[in-house]
Design goal:
Elements (H helix, E strand, L loop, with lengths): L1 H8 L5 E4 L4 E4 L22 H8 L4 H9 L2 H6 L2 H23 L14 H11 L4 H7 L6 H5 L1 H8 L3 H20 L4 H9 L3 H16 L13 H14 L1 E2 L3 E5 L1 H13 L3 H11 L9 H14 L3 H5 L1 H13 L5 H15 L6 H29 L1
Antiparallel strand pairs: 1-2, 3-4
Amino acid sequence: NYFRKRLEKVSGRKKRRCSQHNITVHKASLSDMAAEFEVWLDSPLDVNMQIYELWLRGHSEISATASLTSDSADQSSFGPDAVAAEISSQFHLFEVLETALQNPAQLSRHAIFSLPPATQAKVLNKYFELDDMFIREILGKPVSNRMRKELDDIAERSRISVKSCRRQFENIRRVSKLVDDQEGQLLPLIQEQFRLDDALASDYAIIVFMCNHRLGIEKKRLHRFTTRDFLQSTSLFMQHWTNPAEDVREFDRQLFSDLREVHYLLRDQRKLDAMRTRLKTILPDVQKLDSCLKNIFQLGAGLSSSRELHDIFEDIVDKVIEPLGRAVKPVDVARLFAEIPRAFLETPLTAEQHVRFEKPLARFVAALGPAAALFARSSK
């Protein structure tokens, strides 16, 4: 009605000069207007991040209101009814936005609500945020309908709401599906599609990698290690045991084949003794260094087996950390592994064998050494 009245006010064909602003206005009748217009007046939304976090954790409006009004500072500023009204309004907003949050490319061009870029980034990363306790429950397991059916049990064990568990599961499933359906470098692919910050996108890449390759962490002896220990170790495996030029999503099978041959070559005790003599200078007090060396090469030889890959974390603890002893410092564990490629060159092998296997062995220990040092640190 406002725009109709304004148009009627300037109807006719005479010109009128607006002297105040020096603007010439051409009068026109409504019948001359050939187009219809719909006008939407909008302003950027105000997202209350405190309420948003309560919504993400699976709170109902009632429990969220109780949580906020229990704060004495809130009670002095706002009454319970005002808090409840604000929470109801914000929850409705989040429910409308959720479809766009699940497909972040839609968020910047949402037809109804507009969010400033900084707010978009904040709400997206919060929506895709992961709880360590939830990750711990699903790492190394296939992201499948069976896992979806177990979410009630996972929620009970992790003490996280079922709604929050479902959100995190569905987010991991979406990323996993993207990885399965599209080619390209893993991390840029996730960042482009879901617009997450570097650290969170990296976590999703590692989690999907662990689930796809069934890198298990369920054994009881692994319970003392943190979720971050497993994620950081797997990041090292992805960096050194895959072929980035081809596809970081798959292990380099040629590398594993070479490690199997290295293990075969070093079964001769004379060759192992040559390595032990050099390595003994780093860890002179370790009594089971021979046993540890054999275990390291045996572990490398077994990586071509899916079953051995599944047990990689358990093998690092049982075959490396335990033989070295808990008295060994993590920094010495890292130094030991860094020295192995140089010690290998002193073994009585042919020059051709040294050249062929030096690089695969260096790639192997570049991941295994820091991972072992990480577990040694957490074992203290």
